[in-house]
Structures are given as structure tokens and as C-alpha cells.
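Record type: monomer structure entry
Structure origin: computed from sequence
Chain ID: A
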Amino acid sequence: MLLLLSLLLFNVNRSEAQNEVLTTSYKEQAIQSLSQLMNDFYVFPEVAKKTADHLKNQLDNGYYDEFNTNESFADALTEAVQSVNHDKHMRIRVNRPFVAPPNTPERIVEEQVVRMNRSRQGNYGFQTVDILEGNVGYLDLRGFAGLENAKETADAAMKLLSRTDAIIFDLSKNGGGSPEMVQYLCSFFFDKTLHLNSLYWREGNVTREFWTLDSVSGTKLPDVPLFIITSNRTFSAAEEFSYNMQTQKRATLVGQTTGGGANPGGTMGINNNLTVFIPTGKAINPITKTNWEGVGVVPEIKTTAEESLNKTKLLAKEAAENFRNKTKERFSVLYLDLTHQLDNFTNETSENEILESIKECQEKNVLDEDSINSLGYQYLMTHNKPNAAQIVFKANTMLYPNSANVYDSYAETLMINGDKHASVENYQKAISVATEYEDGNLELFKKNLEAAKSKLNE
């Protein structure tokens, strides 16, 4: 009861402290602290000095006398600093009310709980993932959360989108976030190494380059049409994603010009009540050699906010249809070339060309493990070409080495073709893989091995 009473009194006192009229001394100390933070950390030191001088002049002239709450004072400071540096990232905000005093274990726990709840409720920014009419994938992404926490969520979203024929990234309500998540999601849409963006940091005078990643935890989609919806609320990291894709000519942007914030940084405390976001770096695009600071990213197709989504859906649906037609043509060429090689295979023909053709079909999503296996049995049973079938099954073991079934099928064909020792070895491999990955067909593979050993002993 005493603890509860103490907490209630603390909240009352804190509330009164926040609502009381701000003193001149309080304002002087806040402006002095803010100026010091800018001079120490802002990416543009000369601009920081000019901004600090402007704040002092306003203070000396009594400009801040009329602002008597932290909220109004913070808004006035934000307007003042942006009038000089024109940096939309730099904003002064009032701390959210906490129960526990600053710099206490209780406060640390309280702040961590707030962060956890915010992440859970916001699903790391992945608001909506859907498949629209025409097999168009749609992702409403509200933020680029840290990759260390949100990677599994990102992978789940991209897995759902991986079999669509066009994709929409709706960034119209996305305020930014992690450059690592931007890099990761960009990497899904390229199959080659590309320099996406660089970030220069004042501290250490260093520049970090962000390139597409060689691999992602999912299917890469380098050819799938991509559309990005933007608005004046699209900001910071969301603008980087849009700008990266635009300069690489990888996506079509639809909507309105974005907010225009290209200088990353972090939040710093001015005092117990106020914080400021200080941009400590700047973006440098490798193609334009500049960024979108102050000007925003301009979409190729400009629409009103109300029209953006419907317009993008229509464009994406049409692009998806064209993509399917082109894919069918490309797949037909690859598959017909492969079957021509298999139909004309002889013992004197090099199997390497067939193996490369199967690999290419797999990489282009023409064939997967099951369809390769079916193709092998087609040539084994229907076309009566066991030697050609053997190459197909061999390719499957190379492409899917963690599947027990591919070794079992390969072993069956080796036995038919008279290579009993190799057949037994592959049946044993099937059992080994099935045991490791707890395959439900383990007992069947064991029976097949025993039958193969009996034939070997005959």
C-alpha cells in the first residue's frame, strides 16, 4: 500500500513538474545542451554552429518567453533548428511519461517493456501481406525494423510473395528505420552484386557501403515486376529503398514525392524531459553521387494519395500478365532444349551439358526437386532411356543433397543400369540423410537397401 501511494505521489509530482511554467533558466540550459549536441555530433559542423547561433539569438531576444510547456517549447525549437539547417530528421520531442526515475533499473525495465510492446503490436512494420487479384503480391510495410529482430518476419513475408507475378511495396506510411533491413529486402530483387548506397558518418570520418547480399533466406526475385507506392509520409530508410530501386531501374514508383530526409542518426537526451534526433551521417548514392535530402524521391507516375493504391494495382496486374507470358516463353525454350538433349543422349554424349541444362532450369524455377524426379522416371519408364534417366536423377542429388528421396531414386536407376556397388552406396546415403532429417520414409529406404544388397551378392 505504501509503495502504491509512493508511485501515485511520484506520478502527481512528475505531472505537475511537466505542466509547470518553464523558467528562463530551464530554457537556457535546454538550448545550451541542444547546441552542444549539434556541435559535437551533427554531420555538418558548420551548419550546426549556425543553427546554435540562431537559437542563442532567439533566446536573447525573448523569442521563447511565450512557450511555457515542454510540448510548445519542443515545437518551437524544432521549427527554429529546421529554419536554418532544413533537416527534416532533426526534431525535438517530449519524452513519454515514465513511472520510474531516470537512470534506475526500474526505468530500464520500463523502457524495454515499451519497446517490446511496440515491436509486437507493430509486427516489426509488416502491417499487411496479401495476394491480390492477378497473382499480385502486396506488402504494406510501415517501418524498416532492425534485421537482428525482424529477419524472420521479413523472410515469412517474402516467402508468401515469392510465387507472385508482380509485387507492390506500399511505403506510403513508412517513416524509415534500419539501413540493414533496407539492404536485406533490396537483395531479394537482384541476382548480381550491386552497390546500393553509402552512408558517410562524421564520427571517425568513415563511409560504409551497402551492397546487395549474395544470398537471402528465401527465393530471389530478380525478374518479378516491382512497384513502390510513395507519399509525403515516406521518409528516411523508406526513401532509401525507393531511391535505390529507382536509380537501379528495378522498380516503378507510384504516388507523391517523398518527405526528403537522407541524413541518418540517433536520438539523444537534451534533459530529463526533451530529446532530439541528431543526424550524424548522410547518404551517398553511387549512381547519382547525391541523395534525396530536402527534395524527396520523385515517383515516375504521380497520383493523388487517394488514387495511388488503385492505380498501382492496375499497373501491377497488367505487368503480372506480361510477366507470365514472358516466363512461359522462356521456360518453354529451356525445357524443350533439355528434353531435346535427353532424347538424343547416347553413351558417347557428354553428360555435363545435360547437368548444366538441368541446373539452369532449376535456377530459373522451371524445375524443382519433385519435377526433376518426375522427369527422371518419365525417361526411365515411359521413354525407356535409363541412361538419360540416370543423369537426371544424378542432377537431383547435386541440387538437393539434403533430400533422402533423390538418392533413393538415383540408386534405383543405377541398379537397373547394372552399377550395383554405386546403387548400394546411394541407398546407404538415402538412409543416412533420412535419419539426419527424420524422413518418414526411412523404413522404406532400409528395405530398398536390403534388396539392393541381395542383388549385389547374387
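Annotation 1: Residues 1-19 have pLDDT under 50 and may be disordered.
Annotation 2: The domain at 115-318 is CATH 3.90.226.10 (2-enoyl-CoA Hydratase; Chain A, domain 1).
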